[in-house]
């Protein structure tokens, strides 16, 4: 099942009519040569029809990139550029847009060879705002052919995420569990960013699950699970039920995606799920997420949305964890202090019952859900995937419409330490610089729930640009401020 977007970027060069058009032609050709040499020819298209100087040229270029199947656009200022035509091109193109500009090549050619795109970018940005057109502009958007090729390459994961969101449906099952207002999900902001939401009853899911009893595909899926779990297959008796549930969800996706290309799921997992289905869905959630269909726990709609964005941006499996518990002082003293450059408050443990994919665990075992088993028969809580999360770089992040219906986000780079957790569930010892202050002045102050998405690598730069593009105010994108930089709510005499 292909649930991840691809992009084809159309590169359109523009030229102001009182500047040499040849500058834009030559510079576009050099840009394309630099890009294909560095990153290959796949996924990029050079618009050959014209250099855009007028509104008529704009229409011609727009039709050309559409016919070429482009779903993302790069407007390249080879010289000063026609501020009206170039921004009209962006306005009428349906998909993510990027603006970049050519630097001057040599001090020996600053008369006929001077393009002034450095100046033109200012007018382009001004006109984009006049027309209320959103576009991605890199941190420093002016460069030579090689520089601009790198900028386009950085735009690719951003564009993929934006294309994905424009055709995403989130399918949820049931209301949030009792005493779980933390995953409150005002849905107006989903519609604002172009995401569809389909909310279903748990009874609908339960009925669909029973219709899959005896499905001839169950043995093959259970066999896949056996192979994935290996020696960690401690609950073989539950695999057929888990396979039945996985097939139920996959069939539901195909039957309910409607006109949307991509799907994420916000699933129910307690309190009645275990007693009625006879298992917990954690392992199935992990498998689908690893297959590119993110599934959040506890009907966390914005968690599923965050997972989808991270999966597209990173091109890899993500997970959803509770920002869960402190690292005990004795454990910090024994395992972390002096070995890693983190204070006790920089560390915490990220945990969830068992929804992290096997490929992101150092070891794994199929077990029962210990917390649920404190109040329920153990046999109905089987289906978690337990193990320590693999060490390495991570990005902890979340996009959320908070209680006041404002779109907010946070991003923090850190790492999972190679420290044994001595605990249960899918769990890891996390370290984020200045986590204690970030916890208080971003997570608590911003009204975020306890669930955070985790991408395996540092992807803050791309995530920041995605969040900006979809309308999160920059002042509402929190991050872990370095020591010495005060948060607005931080007591200066702390």
TrEMBL record:
<protein>
    <submittedName>
        <fullName>Fucose isomerase</fullName>
    </submittedName>
</protein>
<dbReference type="GO" id="GO:0008736">
    <property type="term" value="F:L-fucose isomerase activity"/>
</dbReference>
<feature type="domain" description="L-fucose isomerase C-terminal">
    <location>
        <begin position="351"/>
        <end position="476"/>
    </location>
</feature>
<dbReference type="InterPro" id="IPR015888">
    <property type="entry name" value="Fuc_isomerase_C"/>
</dbReference>
<dbReference type="GO" id="GO:0005737">
    <property type="term" value="C:cytoplasm"/>
</dbReference>
<keyword id="KW-0119">Carbohydrate metabolism</keyword>
<dbReference type="InterPro" id="IPR009015">
    <property type="entry name" value="Fucose_isomerase_N/cen_sf"/>
</dbReference>
<keyword id="KW-0413">Isomerase</keyword>
<dbReference type="Pfam" id="PF02952">
    <property type="entry name" value="Fucose_iso_C"/>
</dbReference>
<dbReference type="GO" id="GO:0006004">
    <property type="term" value="P:fucose metabolic process"/>
</dbReference>
